[in-house]
Amino acid sequence: MLTDFKNQITPIDFNVVKEKIQATGVPSIGNGTIREIVKVANEIQQASGQRYIRMEMGVPGLAPPEVGINGEIEALKNGVASKYPMLEGILPLKKEASRFIKMFMDVDLPEACCIPTVGSMQGGYATFMILGNMDAQKDTLLFLDPGFPVQKQQLDVLGQKYEAFDVYNHRGDKLEAKLEAYCSRGNIAGIIYSNPNNPSWICLNDDELKIIAKIADKYGVIVIEDLAYFAMDFRKDLSIPGKAPFQPTIAKYTKNYILLISSSKAFSYAGQRVGLLAISPDVYEGRYSRLKTRFGNDKFGYTLIYKILYSFSSGTSHSAQYGLAAMLKAANDGDFNFVDSVRVYGERAVAIKALFKKAGFEIVYSRDLDDPLGDGFYFTVCFPGMTGAELVERLLYYGISAIALSGTGSDYEGMRVCMSQVGKDEFEVLGARLEQFGNDYKLS
Q1: Quick count: other Cβ atoms within 10 Å of Cβ 273?
Q2: Bridge partners of residue 417, in order along the sequence
Q3: Tens digits of per-residue pLDDT, 145-194?
Q4: Tell me, what DSSP letter sits at residue 139?
Q5: Is the per-residue pLDDT at 86 higher than 80?
Q6: Angle of helix 318-332 versus helix 91-105 axis, rounded to 10
Q7: What's the pLDDT tens digit per position in 323-351?
Q8: Is 242 left (phi over 0), alpha (psi -120 to 50) or beta?
Q9: Domain Aminotransferase class I/classII large, which positions (predicted)?
Q10: Which of 74, 169, 254, 269 could be stapled to 213 by a disulfide with Cβ–Cβ 3.0 to 4.6 Å?
Q11: pLDDT tier at 442, thresholds 50, 70, 90
């Protein structure tokens, strides 16, 4: 618990915030998980009657597309709610997923290799489980951090090992030597990263993806590419189906890949918990003797679908699959520009960054190699003289909730800012709260 507060006359009643933080029982709320921060902010908000500026959770702040809703409604009217979905996914979704990957990534992938999951979270969990049981020697996943904290939590739940390094300091040509140092040990089963990156918003380029592919092929490592923010590098127009530029992907450079494609952010469909696993045909058709020992079948694709995903949830929501299929079809046909529908996140980022900078905050991950950082769903900030945990806890007293970078595997102190839930109507309040914080804590 922090004691050196410069000012106890804060936008949210000081004693209310202090009481609710202490009641959590969390040793350091500033290092709390996303859900712990959500919980305490909700409780303070309810007790104080003061609205928080919510920046801790990557919740889409836009309405879901009508085409998806209508697709679900039609499916429900046709009676799908009474029927279990096929484990491998409905044919319309598999068809449109394959088309989508071709149209927006320029990658040919058979329909059979496109499998719906209960969000990318389930897709990642299933992938981690199978990779951890394919080779007795390869028992560790390697994270190119910073990253989504819950993925490491999933591995903790599974009892599987992982290692990580902050990729920001190893961009470009430096990346190969760093990956070589880890993968040459022979224990790395998979490499995972998000692109664009959560939370730094850096974007690995094609040269870096080629390096990752080279190392993966050399050591028989499977690359897991988390595309939670598909086509949301707004510095390039990735929105035209079948025309370059395309979403950069490892799938162009190696056959050892698994893609996690989410509908939550790019399609504002988070509540329906539907995503896609897109698996290289070589991996999907691969046979691994240890899988047979562990799960009773040596085929990767079969084991993933009929052993692991089956045991998790017996399929993905039937109607949600039809909703996603409808959105993908509309995007593939050029009738729905899903990128334009979320471009507002980048516009918010420009405005919100300016408010933080004006109050004396600094951007942590400020460059993307030789280019300025793009503006998108997240950015990162620090405040001089404070750790990330201190910053997060102190800002709770100012009605602002976020998470510390320490939980993301970052080498830097600071916090993640998500602008998805911050509307224009809150900019004035946010600016005033940040200004007071800056005045209270500026270094003399």
Answers
A1: 18
A2: 379
A3: 999 999 999 999 999 999 999 999 999 999 999 999 999 999 999 999 99
A4: -
A5: yes
A6: 40
A7: 999 999 999 999 999 999 999 999 999 99
A8: left
A9: 62-424
A10: 254
A11: confident
H helices of 145-243, in order, are 149-158, 174-183, 206-219
Q: What is the rounded CA–CA span in Å between residue 184 and residue 182?
A: 6
For residue 382, how many other CB atoms are within 10 A of its CB?
19
Structure tokens at 313: 């949830």
The secondary structure of 5-61, three-state, reads CCCCCCCCCHHHHHHHHHHHCCCCHHHCCHHHHHHHHHHHHHHHCCCCEECCCCCCC
What are the residue boundaries of the structural domains of the chain, listed by start?
Answer: 14-51+343-441, 66-332
Q: In a 3-state reduction of DSSP, which class is residue 240?
A: coil
Return the SS3 of 427. Answer: helix
Query: Whole-angstrom Cα distance, residue 205 to residue 210?
Result: 9
pLDDT value for 213: 98
The three-class DSSP label of residue 405 is helix
Tokens of 228: 């939670």
435 contacts 354 by C-beta, under 8 angstroms: no
* Phi, psi for residue 65 in degrees, rounded to 5: -65, 140
Single-letter amino acid code for the residue at 394:
R
The string of pLDDT tens digits covering residues 225-282 is: 999 999 999 999 999 999 999 999 999 999 999 999 999 999 999 999 999 999 999 9
Q: What is the dotted CATH code of the domain comprising 14-51+343-441?
A: 3.90.1150.100
